[in-house]
Write a structure and sequence with these properties.
The structure is a single chain. With about 375 residues, the chain is of the alpha+beta class. It has two domains: about 140 residues, 3-Layer(aba) Sandwich (Creatine Amidinohydrolase, Chain A, domain 1), CATH 3.40.350.10; about 210 residues, Creatine Amidinohydrolase. It is about 35% helix and about 20% strand. It is built from ten helices and 18 strands. The strands form six sheets. A six-stranded mixed beta sheet has the order 4-3-2-1-5-6, sandwiched between helices. β15 and β16 form a beta hairpin. α7 crosses α8 and α9 runs antiparallel to α10. It is elongated. It starts with a helix and ends in an 11-residue tail after the last strand.
Length: about 375
């Protein structure tokens, strides 16, 4: 973690930033190793160019922060304390004058912005997000090892879901069985709310599972991911329960063709826009362009959605260590929805496909 703090401090020197205050739990975890969900309470990491950093957290989590490996000052506060007073003291103790401060403007709410502004009444505030996104975008070997484990468990979850599909079972029946199986393997957090959508429900890209019963001739869409040691996986598979129509099969085959082509186009130096358009053109040429409404994929790591974003407008080139998804879809209202998603890691010469559940149409 020291190397990550050092990279942030070096950026601060280059940008003439005196103090960074990082408040999003994901970025605090990335920089400190301390994973916390503080709810409404303040969690923050104070970083300087040369002075020792500090961590501020609810007092009941102070030992957890120590056990996570944070070796610098930890400021714990009670529910009756004003944590901003402790933060002010920590800065004064370091004899630090703050003329420019970096904060996560997308995360910091108005109340906290007013509080930190009161500490530095004449300071200019600059965004820290872009630098943090770039730091997190390229994964090291330890991060990749954890993400591989999370992806293997995502594969297991899809297999479990397929085995649970039976005539008359509801989406929620299957979802509950999947998450219970993961709990028994020690997983206590999903990357996001698990999706199991059957039949026409799959035509909503972000649909909500409910009590719809599965019946023969349905396509069943699974979208899920697990969190392992703070890192996420994200997989989507669409399977057939019994025989399906020619139209459903055509949609599936088109999505699969687009997904495979986009994976094949992914390699160091390839632009995110080129990869997106590789899949998008195939779907458009098949006559389904209007039914593919979202980006092709997104970065993956501590957050389930992070940099890079694979859109037709992003010219960023892939580099070794990036981890991202490829997830084209076609969603035809009243007919069916199909999405196929893999997690990929960029290697020296190509990509490693981290999610390995079969993509050829599975009949269950």
């Amino acid at each position: 973690m020291d190397s990550r703090i050092s990279k942030l401090s070096q950026w601060m020197k280059e940008e003439d930033i005196d103090f960074s205050f990082i408040t999003s739990p994901d970025n605090v975890f990335y920089l400190s190793g301390f994973l916390s969900d503080p709810h409404e309470r303040l969690l923050g990491l104070g970083v300087f160019q040369d002075e020792e950093p500090f961590l501020v957290c609810p007092g009941m989590e102070k030992n957890d922060a120590k056990n996570a490996g944070w070796n610098y000052e930890i400021i714990g506060y009670s529910d009756t304390d004003n944590p901003w007073e402790f933060i002010s003291s920590a800065i004064q103790k370091r004899n630090q004058k703050v003329s420019r401060a970096a904060v996560e403007k997308e995360h910091m709410n108005v109340e906290r912005y007013e509080a930190i502004s009161a500490l530095f009444s004449s300071a200019a505030f600059v965004p820290a997000e872009e630098k943090l996104r770039k730091l997190r975008m390229v994964k090291d070997d330890k991060e990749l090892k954890i993400i591989r484990e999370a992806c293997a468990l995502a594969d297991f979850a899809i297999q479990t879901g397929c085995e649970e599909i039976k005539e008359g079972k509801t989406e929620m029946d299957v979802l509950a069985a999947v998450e219970y199986a993961l709990k028994k393997k020690g997983i206590n957090e999903m990357s996001f709310s698990t999706m199991v959508l059957t039949g026409a429900n799959g035509a909503s890209p972000h649909g909500t599972p409910g009590m719809t019963k599965i019946k023969k001739g349905d396509l069943v869409l699974f979208d899920l991911g697990v969190v392992v040691d703070g890192y996420c996986s994200d997989i989507t598979r669409t399977v057939a329960y019994g025989e399906i129509s020619e139209k459903q099969r055509e949609i599936y085959d088109t999505v699969l063709k687009a997904q495979l082509a986009a994976v094949d186009a992914s390699k160091p130096g390839a632009a995110c826009s080129e990869i997106d358009m590789t899949a998008r053109n195939i779907i458009a040429e098949a006559g389904y362009g209007e039914y593919f409404p979202h980006r092709l994929g997104h970065g993956l790591g501590v957050s389930v959605h992070e940099y890079p974003s694979l859109t037709s407008a992003n010219s960023l080139q892939l580099e070794k260590g990036m981890v991202f998804t490829i997830e084209p879809g076609i969603y035809v209202p009243g007919v069916a929805g199909v999405r196929i998603e893999d997690d990929l890691a960029v290697t020296e010469n190509g990509v490693e496909i981290l999610t390995k559940f079969p993509k050829e149409l599975q009949f269950v």
